[in-house]
Amino acid sequence: MTRIDLFSKRQKRLRGETSDVYQYDTIPKPLRVQIVHILRDAIGQSGPYAEMIEGCYKIIVDALRREYGLFSLPPVPSYGERSYEQEHADFLLNTQDVERAVDVIEISFRVVANVTSRANYLGRSNPRKIAGEAVEELNARLKDHGVGYQFLDGEMIRVDSELIHAEAVKPALRLLNTKSYKGAHEEFLKAYEHYRQGNTKEALNECLKAFESTMKAICDKRSWPYSSNDTASKLIAVLYDNGLVPSFWHSQLGSLRSLLESSIPTGRNRMGGHGQGATPTDVPDHIAAYMLHMTASTLVFLTKAEEAL
């Protein structure tokens, strides 16, 4: 449905009451209500297809119940039985846990994308367009309220990670998704998944593995000799010695070798790679995110440089 630029919205903008700063720790009630409306438009409401519609909400509710270890999503109704659609809306509208609210939104729009990919869903002639419009409106509503998330490629992503996700993570996964880089691809996927699940130490370990595997794969492709137990710094030396970076760029990229040798391996070694002693080592999310994005950018650079040889 088309968003309307209401008089009240325009006045708020004129008075400077809209914020350019994104928030991550609250989802306003009006936004939650708008999301319920978007989902009802996309999935459908009561009518001749009521059973199919209820089945979609059942998929969402069952997934959340199982993941949270619950038999029903709160709040517990005082009016007796409720439909899956009602249970879904109750939880989205009332949960005080912002991350769980984001869970609901993410899973719901995944289901929207899945069910509306079927031909003639609810008798509609262009169901894919409906899914695209639903996601477009969701992202626009999130921005309207200054909530710092966007739904991209089947996931809710923080706006502060959106650019690096688009410019580094996705290209890295695409470039590594070949037979030559199979091992590095698997390791980088593991790093990204560990990061998403909050396993930051494991994410750093997989970052280093993906980095080293990519360099070994390049050496294998080019028949450049190296030892199977070479560390990252030795593998970097092999790549430089064999001209992966053109000689006329050495002066401009004089710091690159230092960056590659110190950033990813050092971050992993100091924070996630060795025994942590009596006091557990905590790897903050922002450090893990930085290392993941640095790894992604480095892998894109290395694979692109190899292609350019």
Describe this protein's structure.
The chain is mostly helical. The chain has two domains: 23-152, no CATH class; 159-308, Up-down Bundle (Four Helix Bundle (Hemerythrin (Met), subunit A)), CATH 1.20.120. Helix content is 64%, strand content 3%. The chain contains twelve helices and two strands, in the order ααααααββαααααα. It has helices at 7-14, 29-43, 50-68, 84-94, 98-115, 127-144, 159-176, 182-196, 200-222, 232-241, 256-273, 285-308; strands at 149-152, 155-158. The chain has a two-stranded antiparallel sheet. Strand 1 (149-152) and strand 2 (155-158) form a beta hairpin. The longest helix has 24 residues, at 285-308. The termini are far apart. The mean pLDDT is 82.
Write a concise synopsis of the structure shown.
The protein is mainly alpha-helical and 309 residues long. The chain has twelve helices and two strands. The chain has a two-stranded antiparallel sheet with strand order 1-2.
